[in-house]
Amino acid sequence: MDLSESHLVGAALHWARVGYRSHAPRLLALLLGWAGVWVLVELLVVGSGSRPGRPVWTVLHLGYFWGTAYWEVAMLRGALGAFDGTAPSGRGALLDHVAVLRFLVLKLLLLPLVILGMVFLVAPGIYCMARLGPAVFFVADGPAGPWTALALGNRATAGRRGRLMLLCLFLLLFNLLGAALLGLGLVVTVPMSLLACAHAFRAISPKGAAR
Prior knowledge:
The protein has helices spanning 8-48, 55-84, 91-94, 97-119, 123-132, 135-141, 146-156, 161-180, 186-204, 206-210. By secondary structure, it is mainly α. The longest helix is centred in the N-terminal third of the chain and has 41 residues, at 8-48.
């Protein structure tokens, strides 16, 4: 597997295409669990009749971020495991409460930055994803906490952010295309994006460099 930085984008996309057939079913099963949490929370919000900003509405949406974090950590670990050849299995892979708590804090820190960046001409949001996005993998790969993961992500992406921005832009457009096809295209684009990002993370992380 080519982990050279000069071929980072091409190699990541190639791995995503080659690995899709073998690893997509597991990733899609986890994505289905994520979607189930989202649907459940929306049904509870509608059933409660609570308006935005009200205590019940706020608690339910915080519950959404917490509930989906379990599935998101599992998907990140699944993508890394697919690349490493050591896909995690069992309840421990999904119910790692410490990792999920760290991931939740990190997500709540990163999400506003990315959204604000996307609002301001898109490019700042893509830059934020390229510069700090690998932090989510550092948390999932363990045992880094949110602040340590941000520092590791910032350090790992130094000098590589241009190529990572190109990868982020491609994956953003790729998933928008998948969503535009009545959402059905996400069955292809989401697993491939996870696999591509896992490959890119291993290419720039200390563990990947050691390999």
